[in-house]
Amino acid sequence: MDIKRVKQILSSSDTISVEYNGVPVWIEKCEENGKLVQVHDVAYPQESVSVDAAELEEK
């Protein structure tokens, strides 16, 4: 996924399904460098990680 789409999803009021390595995730924010995205596993919201936006997939 490109960073432009990540920002669109973040600003959307709709719930948009996104996966990282086949796991449903919630996008928290874009990092300042514009390439990394902070996400958390939908099942484990207390654990967040930074991943490359290209590794996210919209479902």
TrEMBL record:
Record's keyword terms, sorted: Sporulation
UniProt entry tagged with the keyword Transmembrane: no
Phylogenetic placement of the source organism: Bacteria, Bacillati, Bacillota, Bacilli, Bacillales
Organism of provenance: Priestia taiwanensis
UniProt keyword Nucleotide-binding present: no
Gene responsible for this protein: sspH1
Pfam name, any one: SspH
Similarity comment: Belongs to the SspH family.
Main location: other
Induction: Expressed only in the forespore compartment of sporulating cells.
InterPro entries (alphabetical): SASP_SspH
Localisation per UniProt entry: Spore core
A single GO BP: asexual sporulation
Domain of life: Bacteria
One annotated Gene Ontology cellular component of this protein: endospore-forming forespore
UniProt name for this protein: Small, acid-soluble spore protein H
